[in-house]
Write the C-alpha cells for this entry.
Amino acid sequence: MKKLIKKKINLLGDPSVGKTSLTLRFVKDIFGEKYLKTIGTNIYTKEIELDEAVLKIVIHDIMGEKEYTAVQKGAFQNSNGAIAVADVTDKSTLYSLVDDWLPRFHDVAGEDKPVALAVNKCDLDEINITPDMVVDELVGNFDSYVYTSAKIGLYVEQLFKDIGTRTLSTRGKREKEIENIVMEQELTSPKELVSASLALSSEMRLMPYEIREYILKTSGIDKFALEDDISESNALYFASALSNWYYNMAENADEDEYFKYRQRANIFLKLVNNYYSSKSLSP
Ligand code: G3D
Ligand code: MG
C-alpha cells in the first residue's frame, strides 16, 4: 500500500483573481456555480496519486481582503506551500503578490516554503500580464509559473500537482549541489564508485556514521586504505547496501521523513547506474 502524505497549501492573491474558482475546478471540477463568497477560510482536500505515495493536499482558500488580518495569519501557520494567483487582465494583481502576499506568507510559514504562480483567466483576450513580465518577477519570488483558466479547466490539475510535489522535495541546496557534482563525474572503476558513495553518504546527515562503517566492513572495503584493487562486486554491494538501508528507513519513517529517505535511496541507485553507463562508454 502506498504511503499517505498530507500537505497544507494556501491560496494567495487579491479579491476576484480566481482563487476559489481554481480550487473548486481542481477539487470538484466545477466552475461558476453559485457558491458563497468566501468568508473566513474554506478548507478543501483532494488526493493526488504519485508514483511513490498518495499525496493528500489540504487547501486553505482565504478571504480575498487585502488587509492583513488575524484570520489570514492563522491560515498561513504550518503551511507547506502556496499557490499565488494573479489575474491576467490586471497587472496590479501580480505586483500585489510580490509586494504584499509573498512577504506575509513567508513571514508566517517560513522562507523555504515553495510558491507556484498561477496567471489565471488566460481564456480572456485581454492579456496585460505578459510572459516577459512574469519572468522578470520570477527569480527569488516564485518556484514555478503557469497560465491557467479555471473557467475552461486549463492547467489547473498541473498547477496543484506542481506545488504538491514541490512541498515534498525538502532537500537542502547544498545536498543538491553535491548530488549534481557526483552525478556528473565519470565512475569507471570500482574504487571511484566507492569514493563517490562515501562522499554522498557523509553529506547525508541522516545516516549514522556507525551504519556506514558497518556496511563498509561487511562489503570487505577498508576506507582508510582505498586500494585500487577493490572488486567490482564489493563496490556494487556497498552502494546497493546504502540504498537498501535508506529504503528500509523510509518504510518505517513518518510522513515528513519518508520522502527524504526515498530520495536518498534513489541517489545511490543512480550512482550504480552511472557506474554501469560510464563503464560501457569507456574504452
Ligand atoms: P477569488 O476567490 O480570488 O476572490 P473567484 O475569485 O474565484 O471568486 O472569481 C472571481 C470572478 O472571476 C468570478 O466571476 C469568476 O467566475 C471569475 N473567474 C475565475 N476564474 C476565471 C477564469 O479562469 N476565467 C474567467 N474568464 N473568469 C474567471 P464573477 O462574475 O462571479 O465575479
Ligand atoms: Mg474566494
